[in-house]
Design a protein that fits this description.
This protein has about 475 residues and is an alpha+beta fold. About 30% of the residues lie in helices and about 25% in strands. A hairpin with a 2-residue loop joins strand 13 and strand 14. Helix 1 runs antiparallel to helix 9. The protein starts with a helix and ends with a helix.
Length: about 475
C-alpha cells in the first residue's frame, strides 16, 4: 500500500510539474501579448500616456556645439589664387530646444499639430571661449551676391564690394556670425542661423497612433503641406518617417528608420549599426549610410537632389546637398562635418579638413521596445559656394567653384540618470521580471516532472524486484 502511495504521489508530482511547465510555456506568448498591449497603449500620443508626457515637454536638455572654420591665408587666396587653408575653432556651445512644444492641437483624423520653438542660450562653461571671439571666414554677402545676381550685373556687385571696402573674407565675432549682423553690402542682417532665435519650426502634423500604432509619430504634414515642394520631384519632396525623437514601438534591426529634418530640407534613413548599453538600457544605434549624400552615379535615388550641373560637376560630386531651393536662393550646401563621405576634391579645394567617422557621423540610440530615442548626435556642416569671375575683383584669381565650410554643429541630447532609472523601473524591469517568471515556471515545472517521473520508475522497478523475489 505504501509503495502504491509513493508511486501515485510521484505520478501526481509529474503531472503538477508538467502543468507548471505548460503554464510557463503559455506565459511566453501571453506575456508577449501583455507587454505589446501595454507598450502600444502607452506609446499613443494623447494626454495621460507615457509617450505624451515625454513628447509634449521640453524633455532632456539639447545642446548645439558649433565649430567655426577660420581662414588662415585670406590675402593669398584673393591676391594670388591660393587654395584656402582653414583651422577649426570651437566648440561654442548653446542650449537649444529648452522650450516645450507650443500650440498643441488634436484633430479628428488621429493627428496632432504643434510648433517647435527655437532658441539658444550660450553656455560659457562648455565653450572654448567667449561669443566675442573673432573669426576670419567667408563673406556671406559676397558669396550670396555672386550666385543670386545674374552674371551680366556682376559689375554692380563689384562696385558694391569696393564701396564698402569689403572682400571675399571678413572678420567677425562668433555671436555675429552665428546669429546675425548688419551687412554693409546688402544693407540687411546676415548670419549662419539668422532666423533661428525666437522663431518656430513647423507647424508639424503627426499621427497620434490611436488608430494604428505603426503610424505613431510619423509626419502627416509640415507647414500645412504633405509635400516639401523644394525639389520638383515626388520622391525627393516626400515627408517620410518621424521627426527622429521617437519611432513606432518594437523596432527591428533589419528595418531602416526614416525621419525628416527641416535643417537639411529632406527626409533620410538610418540603418542599424550595433547595440549599445546606455546607462543600463540596451539601445539600438542607427546611423546614416554613406549613400545618403552619395552622388547619383552611386545612388540613383539622389538624382532629384542634384539641381546645378555646373557646381556639382555634372552631378558627380558626393557628400554635399545644395539646399538653395529652401534657402531663398542662397548658395548654401549641407554636408557631414569635414566633408565626411564626400568627394576627395572637396578636401583639396579647401585644405585643413580631416573627417573622422566616429566624431563626425550622425547617429540615434533608440530603445527598441518603446521606440523612444534616448540619445542622439546630429552632426551637420553648413557650407557656401563661390566661384571664378572676370568682373568681381576679389574673385578674379579664383580658379574653380569652391564649396567653402563655414561651421559644423553637433546637436546632442541624452536621457538623464533619473529618467534612465524611471525607464528601467517602469518598462525594462517589468519585462525582465515577466521573463524570469516564465523561465522559472518552465524550468521548475520541467525539473519536477523529470524528477518525479524518474522517481516513479525507480520505485516501480524496486517493487517489481521484490515481487519476483
Amino acid at each position: 500500500m505504501g509503495c502504491c502511495n509513493r508511486r501515485c504521489g510521484l505520478i501526481a508530482g509529474a503531472v503538477v510539474g508538467a502543468l507548471v511547465a505548460i503554464l510557463g510555456g503559455i506565459l511566453f506568448p501571453v506575456g508577449d501579448m501583455i507587454i505589446q498591449g501595454t507598450v502600444e497603449k502607452e506609446a499613443v500620443i494623447e494626454p495621460g500616456t507615457t509617450a505624451y508626457e515625454n513628447w509634449a515637454a521640453a524633455g532632456a536638455k539639447v545642446y548645439r556645439q558649433f565649430w567655426l572654420f577660420e581662414v588662415v591665408n585670406p590675402l593669398e587666396v584673393v591676391e594670388y589664387g591660393a587654395t584656402p587653408v582653414v583651422v577649426e575653432r570651437g566648440p561654442y556651445t548653446y542650449m537649444t530646444r529648452y522650450l516645450a512644444k507650443d500650440n498643441i492641437t488634436f484633430h479628428l483624423n488621429h493627428t496632432v499639430s504643434f510648433l517647435l520653438p527655437n532658441g539658444a542660450i550660450f553656455e560659457p562653461s562648455m565653450s572654448v571661449g567667449a561669443e566675442e571671439d573673432k573669426i576670419t571666414t567667408l563673406n556671406l554677402a559676397v558669396a550670396g551676391a555672386y550666385s543670386a545676381i545674374p552674371e551680366e550685373l556682376h559689375s554692380i556687385v563689384d562696385a558694391m564690394i569696393k564701396s564698402t571696402n569689403s572682400s571675399l573674407f571678413q572678420r567677425r565675432s562668433v555671436k555675429e556670425l552665428l546669429w546675425g549682423y548688419p551687412d554693409p553690402i546688402l544693407k540687411g542682417d546676415l548670419g549662419f542661423f539668422l532666423d533661428y532665435n525666437n522663431t518656430y519650426d513647423g507647424p508639424y502634423d503627426v499621427f497620434t497612433g490611436k488608430d494604428d500604432i505603426e503610424n505613431v509619430g510619423k509626419i502627416d504634414m509640415w507647414k500645412g503641406s504633405r509635400s516639401l515642394g523644394f525639389w520638383n520631384d515626388e520622391y525627393c519632396d516626400r515627408l517620410n518617417g518621424t521627426d527622429a525623437s521617437s519611432f513606432p514601438p518594437f523596432v527591428k534591426k533589419k528595418d531602416p528608420l526614416f525621419f525628416f529634418s527641416s535643417d537639411i530640407c529632406r527626409s533620410v534613413s538610418a540603418s542599424y549599426e550595433r547595440t549599445v548599453d546606455l546607462k543600463g538600457i540596451d539601445v539600438y544605434r542607427y546611423s546614416l549610410l554613406p549613400s545618403t549624400l552619395a552622388s547619383p552615379l552611386d545612388n540613383p535615388d539622389n538624382k532629384c537632389f542634384c539641381s546645378n550641373m555646373k557646381t556639382t560637376k555634372n552631378c558627380t560630386l558626393a557628400g554635399v546637398l545644395d539646399i538653395s531651393s529652401c534657402q531663398q536662393g542662397r548658395p548654401v550646401y549641407i554636408s557631414l562635418p569635414h566633408f565626411l563621405h564626400g568627394s576627395p576634391s572637396l578636401r583639396t579645394d579647401v585644405l585643413g579638413l580631416s573627417p573622422h567617422e566616429e566624431h563626425h557621423k550622425t547617429f540615434l540610440d533608440v530603445e527598441p521596445t518603446s521606440g523612444f530615442t534616448l540619445n542622439f548626435a546630429k552632426r551637420i556642416q553648413v557650407n557656401m559656394m563661390y566661384g571664378p569671375s572676370k568682373v568681381i575683383t576679389v574673385l578674379k584669381k579664383v580658379k574653380d567653384y569652391t564649396i567653402f565650410p563655414l561651421v559644423w554643429l553637433n546637436e546632442t541630447a541624452t536621457l538623464d540618470d533619473e529618467t534612465a532609472e524611471m525607464f528601467k523601473k517602469e518598462l525594462i524591469s517589468r519585462i525582465q521580471m515577466l521573463e524570469i517568471i516564465q523561465q522559472v515556471l518552465l524550468g521548475v515545472g520541467i525539473g519536477v516532472f523529470v524528477l518525479c517521473l524518474l522517481g516513479y520508475f525507480i520505485v516501480r522497478r524496486s517493487h517489481n524486484k521484490k515481487e519476483l523475489a
